[in-house]
Amino acid sequence: MGEVTQNKEGWKGKILSGLFWRFLEQISYQGIQLIFSLFLLRILDTEEVGAVSVISIFITIANTFIQSGFSQALMQKKEIKEEDYSSVFYLTLALSGGIYLLFYGISPFVAEFYHLPILESLLRQMSILLFPGAVISIQMAYAGRALQFRPIFLASFFSSLFSGVLAVFLAYRGYGSFAMAYQQISYYFFTMLILFLCLPWRPKLLFRLSSLSSLFHFGWKILFSGLLDQIWQNIYGLVIGKRYKVEELALYNRGEMFPKLLSSTLSTMISGVMFPAFSKLQEEKGTLQEMARKTIRFSAFLLFPILFGLMAVAKPFIILLLTKKWIGMLPYLRFLSVTYLFLPLHMCNLQLMNSQGRSDLFLKLEIIKKILGIGILLLTFPFGIFVMLFGKNVGEVLCLYLNAKPNEKLIQYGFFSQLKDCLASFTASFLMGGIVYLTQELLEKRGMTELWQLIALIPLGAICYILFSLLLNRKDIKTLLELNPLKRKGM
Description:
mainly alpha, 2 domains, 0% strand, Poly_Biosynth_Transport, membrane, cell membrane, transmembrane
């Protein structure tokens, strides 16, 4: 009994340590990327940014096809061998080569389809990053299994710093869209190199079809569902880019940038640590439920006030950071902040299913959700962009219900229980956002500059949220204060 308790405490320490380093990695990466993105957006025009946005859709979907599935299977498999890592390594490199040749061949047709000649060269050059991306997926799987997140932090920090400096330098030298393209390419190559230096894993001359077969049994469902999800995540961008101008796509993508950055940072940080942890504890239903509840409450407590606050101060925020030429992204930012509000809850539910080895449920859910989403898109498409986005938000709530439904049976923690756990944070954040928005309108009418508006509004929002949380949400404040990884050994 004492050994089991000690083992649980050991895992709790490793999980908290992992959360700490994952948090640092995501905050540093997203923070550095944000800073350099602001510089680039002030230098480049909307058409140049829109061109890269189009190509990024293709690259993102290709990366998902190459990396998703097998890397998740490597982390989920109870016992892993060296031949498993090496076999997946060679397979992903082969897939990268095949997709690179495909993109190289279709690049003229992509340029013609979007009426942008620059897309031909952009697609061919940006496709190079598929190769280091394949290697990184294996390195990440190895580090994730061992809960070694410090090397990931180091790789992410230095790679994002170098690639950002390079991109700004190239933008000032007049490279236009290619400044952003080379930023992404250099980031991938430097991440691969640093992880190679920091991690002990090296590919061996081993290739076993039997290894791939066992991993494929779990991984193909994750691969297919991940591919469906990425196509779905980018379908609005594809539709906007084709039906409207690429400048409109740039506004949509930049409007998505800030809420996506905030939400995905928290989601990636938590899911990257919790999936291995959930997998280790897959037989202990009570512990899983407790951990899932704390994860969801913790996510809502941190993310909800940030996104509601962002919606409230969006106008002075955009003008101050990006200049008035990007004010067209204001409605996109507000709509998409609602879209990303529940992303951590989606991620937690899906990771719980995967940790139980229920990739069959994962795949079925993805198919059902995509059919639902396409139906909503077809219904709203004729009425314009913002009706489409409203429909997208309705679909997100329905998808959250579907994602949570299996966990009601697996660990007795369903949709309404999760909403109940988030209610206090939602209420406190909504009230805070309303006060900040009304105050912003008043300050703008009185002629206050954008800088002074933000200086006044951000502390106001923080104070309001703390006060409302003390009234409505003391339990989550206590949980947050208990998460002090610096007190843990091994940090």
